[in-house]
């Protein structure tokens, strides 16, 4: 299943208040659009449909993510159609279509839609209507409606791409959503479990609701990393990207930067992404002698792509010699540069093992690191 994810963000969305469209407004430190993009990024290739006036804003909001930006049309349906044509030219087989204003979307709503597409023509999340329904005129109840069998529709709505594209090509009215386009074309749509938290930001009050929901979803992750490299003959070691003169060198397949390896493994650990060996196998000759910052940058990139910021790094180097203290500031600066992080979030310290064990006998250097990642 090759999934394209179309995020419809071409509306002007001024009902939500403010003088810029709601998708570009900030919500607890990130824009609504950025939050939505980050939430859906793990599930397929992103296509963002924007108003032609918003292309510069979209370029800023998609930095660091792989996103194809497409111009929207005169109404929602035309915007979706532009996105579908772009998805088709990318060779996608399936498509999820999502409202940019539903930025509190979570995996427990997205995954069932994708799972259902394995056997269903189309699938979309919804919640049964539980409130009683009335009709009213001038603030007076004029009648009641049976709520049985009624649902409140949400997104992402999932389809086989070519089937939906055909339905869009023949649709000639402004449908409320893609399920309406699909059902009009005879496509059967499976209802999956929606969520009360999957709100569509519409009014100014919705921003406050969304902040409460997002704060409840805050994800804090902790990872640890441990590494050891033995000494061999040489005249310097590389620790945290800094060359330190020494009467031995560290032995390893790469540059043997034991400190940077421990930090990298702590980040992979927090992401449940295994360790350096999984991403850069030692059996692969292209990593022989490699600068370890390649590994560290890779782990940092995965974290950022998944919407995490690095809370802090704490690294302890364990050795009798060389002395780390005189180099700690320079090491911190170098690590901060590589990770694009403020230096005050990186702690680099050292200890001896009181001449005990392999580090005490100066047979090698050990390193232990902790990393925290935060997604809010
Ligand atoms: Mg290592």
What does this molecule look like?
- By secondary structure, the chain is an alpha/beta fold.
- The protein has two domains: 3-217, Spore Coat Polysaccharide Biosynthesis Protein SpsA, Chain A, CATH 3.90.550; 219-375, 2-C-methyl-D-erythritol 2,4-cyclodiphosphate synthase (60s Ribosomal Protein L30, Chain: A), CATH 3.30.1330.50.
- It contains twelve helices and 19 strands.
- It has helices at 32-40, 55-61, 76-89, 107-117, 161-170, 178-184, 204-216, 258-270, 276-279, 293-305, 328-339, 357-360; strands at 3-9, 26-27, 30-31, 45-50, 67-71, 94-99, 122-128, 133-137, 140-145, 151-153, 157-160, 189-193, 219-233, 236-239, 242-245, 248-250, 309-318, 346-351, 364-375.
- Strands 1, 4, 5, 6, 7, 10, 11 and 12 form an eight-stranded mixed β-sheet that branches.
- Strand 17, helix 11 (328-339) and strand 18 form a beta-alpha-beta unit.
- Helix 3 (76-89) packs across helix 5 and helix 8 (258-270) packs parallel to helix 10 (293-305).
- It is elongated, with a radius of gyration of 26 Å.
- The two termini are 30 Å apart.
- The mean pLDDT is 94.
- Magnesium ion is lined by residues 227, 229, 252, 258, 261.
């Amino acid at each position: 299943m090759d999934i394209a994810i179309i995020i419809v963000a071409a509306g002007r969305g001024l009902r939500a208040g403010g003088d810029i469209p709601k998708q570009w407004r900030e919500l607890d430190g990130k824009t609504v659009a950025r939050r939505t993009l980050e939430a859906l990024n793990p599930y397929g290739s992103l296509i963002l449909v924007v108003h032609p006036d918003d292309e510069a804003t979209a370029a800023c909001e998609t930095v660091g993510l792989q996103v194809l930006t497409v111009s929207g049309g005169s109404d929602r349906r035309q915007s979706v159609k532009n996105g579908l044509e772009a998805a088709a030219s990318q060779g996608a087989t399936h498509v999820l279509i999502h409202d940019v204003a539903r930025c509190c979307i979570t995996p427990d709503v997205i995954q069932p839609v994708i799972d259902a597409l394995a056997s269903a023509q189309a699938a979309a999340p919804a919640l049964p209507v539980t409130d009683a329904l009335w009709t009213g005129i001038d603030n007076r109840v004029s009648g009641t409606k049976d709520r049985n069998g009624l649902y409140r529709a949400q997104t992402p709505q999932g389809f086989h791409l070519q089937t939906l594209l055909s339905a869009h090509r023949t649709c000639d009215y402004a449908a409320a959503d893609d399920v309406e386009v699909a059902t009009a074309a005879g496509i059967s749509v499976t209802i999956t479990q929606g969520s009360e938290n999957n709100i569509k930001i519409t009014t100014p009050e919705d921003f406050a609701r969304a902040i409460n929901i997002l704060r409840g979803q805050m994800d804090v992750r902790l990872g640890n990393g441990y590494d050891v490299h033995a000494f061999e003959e040489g005249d310097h070691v590389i620790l945290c990207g800094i060359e330190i003169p020494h009467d031995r060198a560290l032995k390893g397949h790469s540059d043997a930067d034991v400190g940077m390896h421990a930090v990298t493994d702590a980040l992979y650990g927090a992401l449940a992404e295994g360790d350096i060996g999984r991403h850069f196998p030692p059996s692969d000759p292209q990593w022989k002698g490699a600068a370890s910052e390649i590994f560290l940058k890779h782990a940092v990139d995965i974290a950022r792509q998944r919407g995490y910021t690095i809370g802090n790094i704490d690294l302890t180097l364990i050795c009798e010699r060389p002395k780390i203290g005189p180099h700690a500031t320079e090491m911190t600066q170098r690590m901060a540069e590589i990770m694009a992080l403020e230096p005050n979030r990186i702690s680099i310290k050292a200890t001896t093992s009181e001449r005990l064990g392999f580090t005490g006998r100066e047979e090698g250097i050990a390193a232990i690191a902790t990393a925290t990642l935060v997604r809010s």
